[in-house]
Amino acid sequence: MKAPNIPELYPTETIKIADHEIKLKGYKVEDKEFEIQIRHLRNQAIQIQIATNKIIRDDENQIRQDKDLTEEELEKLAELHNKIDDIADHMDEACMLLAQRGLKRYYYDEELTATELDKLEDIKLPPGYAKMIADKMIILSNPPLGVEKSIQAAEKEKADGKGKLEE
Question: How far apart are CA 116 and CA 93, in angstroms?
């Protein structure tokens, strides 16, 4: 029996970095650990931001000045900022690892295993670009649902000139 012509089902997006076009795909199942780590780090950062806002905002939601904060509140803010710095370091690391896998699949062989990819020399890349690549890979691997899907459809219609005109 002849195998059917099955198209590749991974969505792609082409990005440009330093005059180089790179065709990205979503992460593969073996990369899921990095996506989970990134998601957990983002959730931790959100919780820290909420805790920070509780300290720096007053009852009218106005930002309080340092001189209006107690010594205890200033110490707590310093502790929270240190936690954010730690999260940022871990985020950079996780994004770099996921981005490296995506780039190596693009530049080398897409069929290499994660172990084989990890043995290859890393591609030189600034952390900001690694984050951008990791974010694109995560988006490509997780199709939009519900409200997000509706928003994207409306944006596409608007871009195509079919959406409602704003007054």
Answer: 19
